[in-house]
């Protein structure tokens, strides 16, 4: 029954993909609008689109994107100067920034969230700051970060750090604060030390909530890194997109958009996998 | 005066009330002695303060007045000397049945080798008939099996005092019967001192050496200590054939239906007069009428 459902869902997904690609292909095919094979339109000539000659709207057809993607992916790590690096290198820069900023945030948010969650006093005292800092767009920190840190790469990492910290902090504090009293009583009646209670009772009890926070954080971090790299420039997938836009290479832009989606999905999926290990049925 | 193993002395508990500046007195002046190896049940109406007393014995709550002395030491907080079985099993859901018991064994004997801990934990799981389910998580166990793991965990740490708060209250009657017998078996092997709250009169008669009866709150008192004069080993199926069974049962039910309320009114009147509330339970043996001529409520306020 379930496998039958999965099978049908897969078929439906594939149908949607084919329809979407078909419509895209037709919409971008020159024949549809002007059947002028063999000659370049004036617009195409203006756009310098000799290479993109099958495109009438300036949007590349899916076949072009795929052949471009194939070219890029067959040599993802080439490095031909600051403005010409393989997609693999650019993604690696972005992933490195995201993971570093995220890890630094986790290093602070999880222990701090633990302490806040355990203490109703700290919970109340921290709350107004968290509530005000949380809704600030991480990019709003960018000028301040650039001024204080004076390093564009570190500023991008800082922006990731600041946007990752809140979901982890809030979720950890919430998870720790809502550990069932019964389980804390079990720790008490077994005379566990505070440290042992934290590690053998509170941490496993709150782990699913903490990991949910981490999952939200990494999702936001991956959203933010693209914008941050567009601002600071130099390297990274965000810079790559901006650069290709300036080159009017839309096939590269679309290819990069798809790659961002895939990497974001993989980051999320790996944390979803980790959540499975700590989840428990109550 | 000979000191018992567990001495509850002049225990009172008052809580602040939401809509009044006066404190609400849940119970007061409770004096109870429990001997080593005794199985004592506490019965009373809902809300009279049974759990509150148990939490004080567990060290999880601090009484307003009075104190509890166990084995010549005052109970000031929770410890491994007091094992607790709560109504809602309170197993750690991310650990298997075996690991839940191991968790307790490790807390009790941190220096034991892993093999020894394992052997000990499995022995107690075996005693409650869970050999086949040791690897399962609590969510994969039935309510009765979970409560058995709770029993194994509590017995495994070999506490000086075992506390149970309506441990079978959430179970269906059939399961309850089976687990009561398992509890009797494990208790007869270990001879723990047990203090158990129940609302089931038959359960109390089956298990207990003595049943403490509590009047209704506020100003609840432990009014009577009823001896269950039925020889062991006891079995559920044949329990009612004992001559003592019906006199005891009638006495307990009569107390719950009539006595608890009437005595509670007297206690409240006495509290209003400002009498000293300290009291010891009246000792009753319904099976031996000469000790207590008429089974049934007697308006005796023991002082
Ligand atoms: N922490 C508390 N604060 C205020 N009132 C409480 C608290 N704990 C228990 N009570 C009150 O004390 C009374 C006795 O409660 P409890 O011991 O749970 O009763 P029982 O277990 O006999 O049903 C109840 O009226 C309850 O509302
Ligand atoms: Mg209760």
Structure commentary:
The complex is a heterodimer of chains A (282) and B (303). Chain A has 282 residues and is mainly alpha-helical. Chain A has a domain of 192 residues: MetI-like fold (Orthogonal Bundle). In chain A, 33% of the residues are buried. Chain B has 303 residues and is of the alpha/beta class. Chain B has 2 domains: 224 residues, Rossmann fold; 73 residues, no CATH class. Helices cover 34% and strands 22% of the residues of chain B. Chain B has a 7-stranded mixed β-sheet, with helices on both faces. In chain B, strands 2-1-4-5 form a 4-stranded antiparallel β-sheet, covered by helices on one side. In chain B, α4 runs parallel beside α5. The longest helix of chain B has 29 residues. The C terminus of chain B is likely disordered. Classes of the chains: A mainly alpha (282), B alpha/beta (303). Chains A and B meet through α9 and α10 of A and β6 and α2 of B. The complex binds adenosine-5'-diphosphate and magnesium ion (MG). The site of magnesium ion has 3 residues of chain B, from α1.
